[in-house]
Task: structure prediction
Amino acid sequence: MTGLWLPARERGLLWSGSLGAGLLLEPAAVVRVERCGGGAGRCGVRVLADGVPVDGEPSVVLELYRLEPGASRLRVTVELPVPLGVGYAASAAVALGVGVGYAVANGLTIEEGARLAHMAEVAAGTGLGDVAAMVHGRGLELRLGHGAPGAARVESVAAWGPVVAAETGEPLSTEEMHRELGERLHALAAPRLARLFQSPGLDTFLREARGFSIEAGFVDEKLSERLDALVEEGLARGWYAKKRVLVVVASDEEAQARVAEALREAGLQPRLMRIATAPLRVEPCSATG
Result:
């Protein structure tokens, strides 16, 4: 989940994207892709977000169909462990699942499918750099060059450990977030990203992402004080927020439980997660599933 970013809107979907940094989190989304038509059943994309079926097909899927009509001739089921639209980059996971599924089903490379997913995200306005981060990153990902997978420059810094995440409000679209931040985004994020790129590491990232979260208004003063207290007590290495999602990196497994309880006391519903240490994985499915 991104903690610092700078949009880079270039001419053409392939080169637009963002510079930035964030943590790859798990559990991961699970996507099943099958050919359809004939006796194979109805085509289309079915999304379950946090166990709840999503009505219709997300806008990023419709943009992907527009870019590659052949993708609409697949039957895709996406199981997301988190809700859409709050800041987990779930729309990127959906686009990536459909794009890579189309590529594998048609003898193309994973990178070609990922580029299609990236372009759909940019066209739909649901994200800029998340797809490249998911394909090329692990642990702490640093996006040093913008664009789709194959064009973007992504480096990873080893990072692992337990995480507690929580939603702090109602969904907020990426476009609405950028409108609210306006011209402040570059002034707030650029110097923090520069410091992180000069001294990359989890602690540096958490420190800079925390400062940006406060300046951008993603957390209120009362909550930020509670979170800082967890760091001072040694229960957390740090925290940050984006849109309507809060991420706390706990010090260890025991501390994770105590951080979760502290978030419950603050009126939030914690999710136990981990920093992902492995990239995107594609596996063949048996005919019987």
In short: Residues 90-105 form the longest helix (16 residues). The mean pLDDT is 93.
